Fold these 2 entries.
Entry 1:
Amino acid sequence: MSRFNPDRRRLLHAFGASTALAAIPGSGFAAAAGKPGKKLGRVVVIGAGFGGATAAKYLRKWSGGAIDVTLVERNRQFISCPTSNEVLGGNRSYDSLVHSYDGLRKNWGIRLVHASVTGIDADRRRVRTDSAGNFEYDRLVLSPGFDFIYSGIEGYDAKAQETILHAWKAGPQTLALRKQLEDLPDGGTYVLSVPKAPYRCPPGPYERASQIAWYFKTHKPRSKVIILDANDKVISKEKLFLGVWENDYKGIIEYRPGWNVVTVDAATNIVTSELGDKERGDVLNLLPPQRAADIARTAGVVNVNDRWADVEWISLESTAVKNIHVLGDALQAAPLMPKSGHMANQHGKAAAAAIVETLSGREAQPTLMANTCYSLVDDKRAIHVDSVHRYNPEKKVPLVVEGSGGVSKEPSVEEGFYTRAWATTIWKDILS
Amino acid sequence: MQKLALALAATLLALNAMADPKAAAPGGRVPYFAANCANCHGTDGKAASAIPALAGRDRAYLEETMKAFKTGARPATIMHQLAKGYSDEEIAVLADYFAKQK
């Protein structure tokens, strides 16, 4: 026995098992959570997107039903932002993005509440809603997504927002932007602005430009896509996107780095850059800078640059407010960790595991997180970027494992299949 | 070889102690760890898509395949990059977990 100890200890460490846990003899891991009838506590989850819905499901799964989970979500249905660029290119039906929450209710016994959160009382641990009453919690999971900083683009007021769309949250705007592209005459210009990082889905704007360029190439060959990027280069899969644009969309996509849109005139559809450059689009698609959504401010967890929520990276508990765990795009991300749906799902699992452990009277341990972001560059081919993030106990933050991760060698049909399979699979992992 | 035997024995010991998925789930640590594969390979490794399912597959095959991705002996679109994020011991535990999923 003793001669195996070093290896055993290493393995236990690989799973973040503490020495205290290792000392529990035999089947010390059999969880109190699994015993029928035993209740461990109440968790309220706000936001049923890629992060929150995942956390809700896995809290029920890993506690064996011993944690009561109430999931509060404004929308009646789940609408996937990942792969919604395909709808803009005409390569996917909008309906395929829309999914029911019934699986969470029926398969996992989660109480789904369709209401808007109007207040969070962290002292009394209570969530107030507009139409469904109040909910008390032992732990709150907040997966709020982002909101735009509209003041970042002068003139992008409520009136301008009626005709100039972002379509950066999948839903009615996705369909409305598709309609604008369909109505655009051949020879018309589509202008997409990209905000300075960080923003939701780093490769998303470049995938969107590629999808729309594919649509133009096959349906409106005289039309143009102009990308006005506030960043000084393509910030994700740079060589791959530039290669696709050069090889497949030459003369269609025009890329302008360092072009930060600061004003828009909705009457003329003209945008102006910081440096005074002007550009006009028949269809303008503007992405203002982003921050954690309003509800994160209400909760008091926004404590980085007045934009993002900082967390402790084992449990994803807010460093500002106790008993509130924050997930997804709203986070001040760890180094090289993107704001992606895939990552939000991993945050949801990490928080769920930590909450189950804590409510079971054990110490939460770090887990591994991995990310994969696929982008479809036409109707068939895709490229990816991936990374593996391991908690570093000294820096107290997950860091990319040296030598892991990378990008595709080239766009491929095989990865196109994987992209669509990824979507189908992660939707099920979240919702059923 | 001796090192490999040692590592395997250690893995089995550790699995007995902590990682029997039935004993550990719900609430144990291996399911937490294995869940980071679920995004692409399905909850508990169960999926029906272009991406291979992991549930119920041969344990040794899963382990050797992941190791071959890691060394680059087996080419891939993405797994050769992700596999490098896991230690051989973690790969052994994941293979065991997914092999046991029904």
Entry 2:
Amino acid sequence: MTEPAGPLPPVSPWQWGRVEQIRVENPHVKTLRVTVPDWVPQLPGQHYVVRLTADDGYTASRSYSVGSPPEDAGVVELTVDRLPNGEVSPYLHDELRVGDELELRGPVGGHFVWRGDGPLLLVAGGSGVVPVMAMLRHRRLVEPDVPARLLYSVRSPTELIYGGELGDETTVIFTRQAPAGQRRPAARIGPADLGAVAFDSGPAYLCGSSGFVETAARLLVDAGGYEPGRVRLERYGPTG
Amino acid sequence: MRVSRGFAGRRRGGEPGRLPPGQYDVGADWPVLTAELTPRIDLDRWTMRVDGLVEQPQSWTWGQVRTLAASHFDGDIHCVTTWSKLDTSFAGVSVDTLLAAARPRPEATYVVATSVTGYTTNLPLDDVVAGKAWIVWEYEGRPLPIEHGGPVRMIVPHLYFWKSAKWIESITLLDHDEPGFWEVRGYHDRGDPWREQRYAGD
């Protein structure tokens, strides 16, 4: 809780971006690539707020992590998990098309951000992989010498996000259904999983559901030797 | 007004004017969005302190704090991440009661609330007096769950809920504003949901 904050990019006023591309990541996750007219480089891990406005002025807004690195200038890629009972994410999945305008502001958040210190441990559950992927992409482009590991927990192989981009630094663990030939049986994250990726120094960034993040952080502190001050958490709430 | 093509919205939230701008009714859920690991708190060693610019710094043990005049809050809470939770009820002690014992000095104008985790948040003194802030340990008649800041947290329900420090251990009175954990990380210094003061500059 004591790490220096450092300067943050200013949060832009509300502005309208344009949807350039929509990519399907898995059956319920899409990535929206949006050009941002008044773009400033975000820190890896930050998010944007999306606001939808109906004919009568009713609005709904939700936060989405940026998956693209700051080197991808003038755009943000927001990876959105479709929550069946949500209000905003079903619109973004089912209604929004390439060429549409989308109102947003950002970048936001000064805690779950990576400023280049290492070695870098990333732990993600499900769609919690989005902000840590921004860190991993930034590292590949700018800080390739910083040691990094990603421990990525998903229910089954079809749940993977950014599956084609995961490299040697990544260990995927499956919690419900593992692919054939996998030595580790499908099971929730445990002490051995974190023990295998822990570094002796450097920060850890954990993102996912509140329960996942709490469990993983507790294991990292109790079994992985991390002091609580090295561990930064981002808990995904109901951002429907 | 520009509209989002094809967006109708769901209109949760019931009576008009009940929700601050940009908020939605989260219903029975109560999201947990804490930035730090949930701490382990030993109530035998925990104390609630009021210090800084006061005539008589105070410290209450867990046993002592619960003997103070009971006070409760019934109403709505609003998180900056856009959820609001309606008709909550919390019980504990009014911050007024704690301050009356410590007697703020005339030059005190701000407070910083500090958690056992090191989390801090700053507030104008005016925002925690006159029945606007509490130290609470019950939620809907039951012990406050640890993930929601139990065994004991502050609540300042008229401001965004990051101002309501979980796992509270002290309130420090100051003669100047000292931005806290989120306030130095891009969030608004005061955080009034009715003025939609989410981020610095709003």
